[in-house]
């Protein structure tokens, strides 16, 4: 029986050691298993013991980590792994001598022994899972592999050696770069379970299958396939990057979660798509992001800090989802919880859903009911003295613009009131008049359209927006649907079915 625990964590679990590893616990191996030996395991299962504890079942799919800097580990290697592949004689194999090799992992050929060079470590069936426990460039000390030597057809000077993971074989791993690996594992020690993240020959960590939520402070250099969920603190306008005459659009989003914040650079099409419907206070889910390696920052002579960048581009499969403005989310009683306005305000909720009546409407902050925006980025446009349209966000002159509403509502649900700026595209749904139709109406007709919504009950998604410059807090309605519509009837239907 061995006790396992994560580095930096107080939790531990007992595991039955597979009998093939028992020699490591014998006297001849000294305290091999006792001095915080690190192991990598796959393909094991847990069971509940009669007294209620959890234990892991024995598995052959276990490798032991050795350290090059540890004297005892070095002695362990030199005492036991003194053979080289070139000394393997066919006669020795026939005599069933046991071998122990120290080899560098280049590839693990699985069910493929057609390779001419080096030796192949062959893994069969369920053993294939073992390949995930060591990486390209790792050193492997292979204890008692099943060895075969074959002379290649027509070549007297060439032969191929095959090592198989047999019933007595034990693999010890000297990781390619143990310091980097420790960095990663320690930074995630706050989480109850830890997962190995594959790292390729260039040291890139792939988070594609990482099952836990990754927090911003856990980001490290050279990661790919990262998914982050957080609140938008700032949307940074296009700062095109020019290299050898080619101009590429570059946008930025400053995102925060409960652990911290980071700036994310979004290139070209995905940058434009993500920022066109992301506004301060919105909750965004970004997937397919990556980080660069560490790069020095700051001016010469001043403090130079080594940092890394977080970025997304189409080639990486980056996607952005705005959860706050998702009407699908709002309309699904299974996904959202309706809160009382008074409670949401008292709890200083960053994002909440409410059912409330529109008690009054007012013009937007600019003092008008509609504004012109750039259709590509959904940001207000400026008109120059020469009547040319300019988009400050995209940093370019533009030819077309479109009209959109800019309104403020007071929402009242009898427990409290909340004044909200009405977000992009939200007023259209409530007014049922498109902005382009609206601007063609006479002023009194416009007022009629707006007055008609007073008293209307809506379900809305609201975000709390903190303005860093003015240090003020405001609220924005990011999605809305009119109550008593299909949502209400669906809900009633579901309740009837459930009842
Ligand atoms: Zn624009």
Automatic annotation (TrEMBL):
InterPro entries for this protein: Cdc24_OB2, Cdc24_OB3, NA-bd_OB-fold
SUPFAM superfamilies: Nucleic acid-binding proteins
Pfam annotation, one family: CDC24_OB3
Positions of the Cell division control protein 24 OB domain: 4-109, 219-451
Source organism, top-level taxon: Eukaryota
Protein name: Cell division control protein 24 OB domain-containing protein
Species the sequence originates in: Spizellomyces punctatus (strain DAOM BR117)
